[in-house]
Amino acid sequence: MRIIEGAGEWTPPAAGAANDWVENLRVPDLSVGTYCIPAGGLDSQSPHTEDEIYVVTAGRAKIVTPDGTAEVGPGAVIFVPAGEEHRFDEVTEDLALLVVFGPAYGSRAHGSAAAQDD
Hints:
Jelly Rolls, 6-stranded antiparallel sheet, RmlC_Cupin_sf, Cupin domain-containing protein, RmlC-like_jellyroll, Cupin_2
């Protein structure tokens, strides 16, 4: 067992950064991280090669995918399949997301995991 300290907690992005991504845990079959976007911020991520679950722990925004748009807030759980375009838009309150990737983030990437923005 392991308690994952800080996972899902709001952290303001570094000066000059649009958002903040921190990987909190990595094992071969999954990874867990925290993604934060400040109110009014922009989400510039690209589709991922892994399935993804977001749990909104704080803030409010809209999630936009080819299937539609939905308002999300604390407690919302969102599944995004591998390869699907998605972004958070209209961030009205500082947004903190607990993110779970299966398998681990970047493990299916063709090239560097750093090439994927999250």
